Amino acid sequence: MAKRVKFQEMLGDVRRRLTTVPEHRKGRNIQYLIVQAGLGAFSVFFAQSPSFLAHQRHTDQRQGRNNARSIFGVEVIPSDGQRRNLLDSVDPSYLRAPFWEIYERLQTGGHLEAYESIGGTLLCSLDGTRYFASQRISCPNCTVHVHDEQDYYSHMVLAAVLVAPGKEHVIALDPEFITPQDGHDKQDCEQQAIKRWVKRNAERFPSWGATILTDDLHSHQPLCELLLESELHFIMTCKTESHQALYQEVELLTRVEDAVQTMTTRRWNGRYHELSEYRWVDQVPIRAGAKAWRVNWCEITIVREDTGKQMYHNAWITSHELTRETVPELVTAGRAHWKVENENLNVLKNRGYNFEHNYGHGKQHLSTVLLSLLLLAFPSTPCSIFRAQSIRPFGRSWGLVALFQRPPRPHPLHVLLQLG
After folding, report:
1. Element (H, E) at 161
2. pTM for the model
């Protein structure tokens, strides 16, 4: 039986890292500590409330209780303005470690076994998204786009989550922020961000113990080379228009007997029968040219048996071996990539986390630090993994008691906790 991970252990990981942030202020007039500001912000996101501080003060006056003190150990919370000023100069790299410390706790507790998929690997899905946009608010870390001679400023992040077919919940990992990088003439982009993420985190997984899932944007030779050099498997969406040489090779191979393998399965989905046609081929060139790497390719087409209507179609390139036994499992794993969007980003944007709300932009790192804390408040771990003391509800937001009084499909960490 998997061992529960206590909420206070997870919170302790965040607290410890905040205490290692160097003090940037000068002089002796230091009323609040950076760790107080960080935990105060963390508690806001945990409570899904942009007005957490005001409510806590109201609770103190009315009931003599302060959840920030009792649950998060914050004796004194800085004001909103003070909190922003304290966190603005904090490098978000100080908040990378808690993601992996939580990961290690789940791994030690045996919870990640349920997330193992094809070849016994963990599926790590990566996808980029924008979380801030403005025509007038900006900082040196903004990405700048020009449209109709007007500058548009934005912040983007590459989200990384562990996913598993059939599991609603995902486990958030260390994100990579998409920002202008020193030494680059052009603005940074998602393709550079994913390379940085892989180089920084590949060694955290066992050799060949993880499979990276991406969309077609990253389905190209340079990233495949980097992943294989890092001893990571991959499953990447492969569109026809961006892989013309590969699909030309597949077309030629269809003329050779048994060069392209096929298989059809039939399944009742509760309303009608679905026919799933699989096609796959080994060792096709990922691009044109003599130096092109060879990858394995597969596709699936699902049609409704009674009408012949196509219900789904997709294709992938992969480093995994393809056989009649492994192809259905690989397709299922490839389709799980979209959980990074459906079960992670969409939840953060639409289920009370105010993912795209500007809590504070700052002049240096405030926006990225606040998003890091928000993501730490959203590890989305399975039910009963964490255990914590009960917390009182915050107005319209949801505390731990929301386990029994929740709105449709909530996804916050505290909803998933088992009450102590």
Report:
1. strand 150-163
2. 0.85
